[in-house]
Amino acid sequence: MERSTRKRKRSANPVKSQDNNTEQSCENSLDLNVYLTYDVLRMLFQYLNGRDLSNAAMVCRSWSEAASNEHCTRGPVCFIGDYSECSQVEHQIRDLYIKPRLGILFMPRIPENLKGHIDRTVPSDCEIVILYVPGIIINNEEMEDCLYPKVVCTFLPEIPNVSINTCQVIKLNSRKGYAAVEELNKMISRVPKVNHETSTCLMLFCNDSAREIANVMISALKKSHDDKICSVWGGVVDISYVHNSDWQVPYCIAVLISGAIRTWSTIIDVKCNTKEVIENRLKSFKDRIKLKKHSIGFMFVCTARGSAMHGKENVESTIFKTLFPNVPLVGCFGDGEFGKNTMDIDDAKEETSVNKQRNSGRNKHSRRKDVWYNEFSTVFMILTYG
Predict the structure, then answer these.
(1) Residues 132, 49 share a domain
(2) Does 214 map to a domain?
(3) 137-154 pLDDT, tens per residue?
């Protein structure tokens, strides 16, 4: 009986082209398959949330490359939630479209067992700052009398060549305040000088008891690093801070974001009490800004503004969203604001004669341009990258 001949696997020998007799290796077709696989991966990865995408990146080199490129297409995430049950917090954070590196939550009070739900969902290297505020803001909605369970959440992803560092004051004394300044000085000393590709922004929050220490910190930073810190944003609110699953309640916390970002901030001070003046200020602000692929806006408002000043709600946030329709806006109300004008303000062009008379005797401290602590003001900040 004849034995059937075993088929041999064809080796990838070079084959000659009939046109010019040049050898074309079968490796070229293999390379083509690799590229097709990459394209398929990119299409599939579009449907993964941030957690699953990060897990997929650990499979192999080609998956890691495809996942990394997909990560770069995803910008900051912000949303408003109704957290009558903490499990909703867990589900929404677990299903985030990005892998979060920094999260800021604005809420009127903390739900029970929130710590455990966040610990189970955020990565260990994600910084979480929870602010207890009298009112919340998202896009053109200013909810001044916000009641639980509404909460506004914003998350920044891991951004290539960008560092996010935090510094906090746990004990209330001036010594700790100066120690925090020294720690921030060390952080900022490692920050490169501002250029057309890199910049640095500072977010600062404190409670009412630490207002004096926060002023010490911000005055020292302004004196030593005014040229490195491009924008400042924050204010006086109650704080609960989560870091690496370890809950702490500091009196003051600073967040420093530096690297391949562009950032600007502006102060709508006590003189800006009409829609016309605010529009002029924000139009001047817009003229200085060049947005990149991903952007997010932050707004911190004094409780004395809003409807108390304008007679109706959503005035300032609506002006911002009209000028920056594609920039998501989040923020809150507070009692004392930290901010920096990253552009020169020409008050003479903005104020009408009526406003000059009306404001001539009001809060001269907030009129000064050389301070980073203000009252009766609104502070806007924009962060953009990509």
Answers:
(1) no
(2) yes
(3) 999 999 998 777 888 999
